[in-house]
Amino acid sequence: MSLREAEQQPHRSERDRALADQRVMTLRQWCEVNGFSWWTGQRLIKAGKGPKILQLSPRRIGITVAANREWQQARERA
């Protein structure tokens, strides 16, 4: 690895993290990541107990990785 590549590495990882946080998961993917069924995910969303939702189209929703992380952190027990 050259010196220039080594200097750019921290910037690249910050950019990669930012892009990963903006990645949008479908409702099914979100349910799989969190280990519950699609029906449970639907109930959480309808009850207002889920993460922030993106309305991707009139019939399609999504959840960003960052919104999922915030939702998980808000549900941690002390």
What are the SSEs and their pairings?
Elements: H1 3-22, E1 24-25, H2 27-34, H3 38-46, E2 54-57, E3 60-64, H4 65-74
Antiparallel strand pairs: 1-3, 2-3
Task: Give a brief description.
This protein has 78 residues and is an alpha+beta fold. The protein contains four helices and three strands, in the order αβααββα. The termini are far apart.
What is the CA-atom radius of gyration, in angstroms?
Answer: 16 Å
Main pleated sheet = 3 strands, antiparallel
Q: Give me the side-by-side strand order of the main sheet.
A: 1-3-2
What's the shape? elongated
Which residues form runs of ≥5 with pLDDT under 50?
Answer: none
What are the key terms here?
single chain; 78 residues; alpha+beta; 4 helices; 3 strands; 60% helix; elongated
Mind explaining what this structure looks like?
- With 78 residues, this protein is α+β, with helices and mostly antiparallel strands.
- The protein has one domain.
- Helices cover 60% and strands 14% of the residues.
- The chain has a three-stranded antiparallel sheet.
- Strand 2 (54-57) and strand 3 form a beta hairpin.
- Helix 2 (27-34) crosses helix 3 (38-46).
- The termini are far apart.
- The mean pLDDT is 87.
